[in-house]
Amino acid sequence: xxxxxELIPFTEFDTLHFARFIILDDKTTEDVRVYGLAPxxxxxxxxxxxxxxxxxxxxxxxxxxxxxKGLARIxxxxxxxxxxxxxxxxxxxHNAPAIAAYVNWRGRTVRQIxxxxxxxxxxxxxxxxxxxxxxxxxxxxxxxxxxxxxxSEKSEGRLTLSGESPTPVGWQIKNLLHxxxxxxxxxxxxxxxxxxxxxxxxxxxxxxxxxxxxxxTVDQKHSENLSRFEDHDVTNQFSAMGSLKPGLVRLLTAxxxxxxxxxxxxxxxxxxxxxxxRFRPECFFQQRDRLSQNELAGNGWLHRRAxxxxxxxxxxxxxxxxxxxxxxxxxG
Length: 332
Fold this sequence. Notes:
The protein has helices at residues 56-75, 87-93, 110-129, 131-134, 139-155, 169-210, 220-227, 248-267, 300-305; strands at 16-24, 45-52, 100-103, 235-243, 277-284, 290-298, 322-328. The chain is α+β, with helices and mostly antiparallel strands and 332 residues long. It has one domain (10-109, 165-328).
């Protein structure tokens, strides 16, 4: 896809890491037959996803201001949208917040990434051109030489290495409340949880023993077709959508697991822990009977460039750093 296209010129947004449109089609609806249930007919969904720095709503306003006509043209293919629709209100109405989200390096902004990419290229070119001189230098001398080169490039205006922006106080407060909130809720509810736990464990174990196995064979042609779209750029996007097994116990288990994963990814996991995975949101659909997973992973080229870092970044990327909108496609 051309990132500088006429409909939505993504390259003009300096806080946007990645963005894409995806058509979601649930291929697992037939699985419920093993539970004696009739499959439901679901529409196709068009999903827009964006991973941004800062506040997601602020970015959405800028996006509509710059590319509103292009967005309206794309969403005109969806049910419930017309030329008279309020685009901003419509996208907010169809927002699908992530129940769990992983950010590889929270606080590493688009600006910092671009500046470090320029730093990487400048150092690489300098080392290649001066390899004969640099080869015999001691590590301390080599470091001083490279540092002197970088300072010279900055003074000449050929390199820009911006300082870190302060983390907004509001975001820090929200993050602290989120950090303390989940353990506090668990602590308050612990008497009830202890009482319910034996019944829950019994029901869950019973389901584990009696659940039929659903093991569809892989469509090799489909798999090969997907592989043709991989490794053409610095990132690969992976999107999957599926139906949850029916039943309240399974739904509550999924919610608890995803909430726990989200808490760990936000407050416990160290930056860069999952290697090349950049962003990974998990989203429930309206009735919480289906789940979509949308992942962005870097290939080796991006992974190598990510090793050039100046200082630990401030922790501020938008709360979930996701702008997401789900809407039904008009099959007509």
